[in-house]
Automatic annotation (TrEMBL):
<feature type="transmembrane region" description="Helical">
    <location>
        <begin position="179"/>
        <end position="199"/>
    </location>
</feature>
<feature type="transmembrane region" description="Helical">
    <location>
        <begin position="205"/>
        <end position="233"/>
    </location>
</feature>
<dbReference type="Pfam" id="PF00873">
    <property type="entry name" value="ACR_tran"/>
</dbReference>
<feature type="transmembrane region" description="Helical">
    <location>
        <begin position="80"/>
        <end position="97"/>
    </location>
</feature>
<dbReference type="InterPro" id="IPR001036">
    <property type="entry name" value="Acrflvin-R"/>
</dbReference>
<dbReference type="GO" id="GO:0042910">
    <property type="term" value="F:xenobiotic transmembrane transporter activity"/>
</dbReference>
<keyword id="KW-0812">Transmembrane</keyword>
<keyword id="KW-1133">Transmembrane helix</keyword>
<dbReference type="GO" id="GO:0005886">
    <property type="term" value="C:plasma membrane"/>
</dbReference>
<keyword id="KW-0472">Membrane</keyword>
<protein>
    <recommendedName>
        <fullName>Multidrug transporter</fullName>
    </recommendedName>
</protein>
<feature type="transmembrane region" description="Helical">
    <location>
        <begin position="117"/>
        <end position="143"/>
    </location>
</feature>
């Protein structure tokens, strides 16, 4: 028998119990915990800044995993999600109104809500995180109901014989209180998210700020911009396609 020492050299040393690989490359996992009051998005920006300052060699590359990777992927898909939501609303409203024009009047309330949401986040010093994105999608469904209530009433008034200007004026008068009631109800529902404390409060804060800021700004502008846009679109050659043809005869004979 040949002794093992003849063909090998023995030396005591320390090594890892397991070597992880990712894509056939040696990989190491570095975990971190979030301190109180710091969001995952803020922590990721801090990590990116530290990695850029470290100037690692080209052979060492880093990437996120777990919740951080999901957050980054969702951030990349945000424009697609918002565009899909707006397109879906336009299609549904177009089917309901049987018009290509009136859905534009409803969708016109969404930019003011987005501006209010971003302004609220900026004033409160919060970043546009995943929860803020969820709040923005919720605003798409909440804010458009103001314009829907106005336009539904105005269309019904036009079909009863009123002209467009009188119809939208009556809609603003008779739908003012329902619009204010529903807006205040949604705003008061967002207050616990803004002023809440305890575990997870910092996670819910951007959601409440987005909803509250979007509601305040959109409410202040909807009652002014929606009637104006309604009248502008009504004057277009294809803007009165939602009014039955027999209504024109009634109006012409009355004039």
């Amino acid at each position: 028998m040949v002794p093992l020492s003849v063909v090998t050299t023995r030396k005591m040393n320390k090594t890892a119990l397991a070597v992880n690989h990712a894509g056939q490359a040696v990989a190491a996992t570095i975990s971190f915990n979030l301190p109180p009051g710091v969001s995952l998005n803020q922590a990721m920006k801090t990590v990116d800044r530290v990695v850029a300052q470290t100037r690692l060699p080209a052979s060492i590359q880093g990437d996120y995993a777990g919740n951080a990777a999901q957050l980054r992927n969702s951030a990349n898909n945000q424009p697609l999600l918002i565009g899909g939501a707006v397109l879906g609303i336009y299609i549904i409203l177009g089917i309901l109104y049987e018009s290509f024009v009136q859905p534009i009047t409803v969708i016109s309330t969404l930019p003011s809500a987005g501006v209010g949401a971003m302004l609220g986040l900026w004033v409160c010093g919060e970043e546009f995180s995943l929860m803020a994105m969820i709040g923005l999608l919720l605003l798409v469904g909440i804010v458009k109901k103001n314009a829907i209530m106005l336009i539904d009433f105005a269309i019904a008034a036009e079909r009863s014989g009123l002209n467009a200007e009188d119809a939208i004026r009556q809609a603003c008068i008779f739908r003012f209180r329902p619009i204010m009631m529903t807006t205040f109800a949604a705003a008061f529902g967002a207050l616990p998210l803004v002023f809440g404390h305890g575990y997870g409060a910092e996670l819910r804060l951007p959601l409440g700020i987005t909803i509250l800021g979007g509601l305040v700004v959109s409410q202040a502008l909807t009652l002014y911009t929606t009637p104006v846009l309604y009248l502008v679109l009504d004057k277009l050659p294809f803007g009165r396609e939602h009014i039955p043809s027999n209504t024109y005869g009634i109006k012409e004979s009355a004039s």
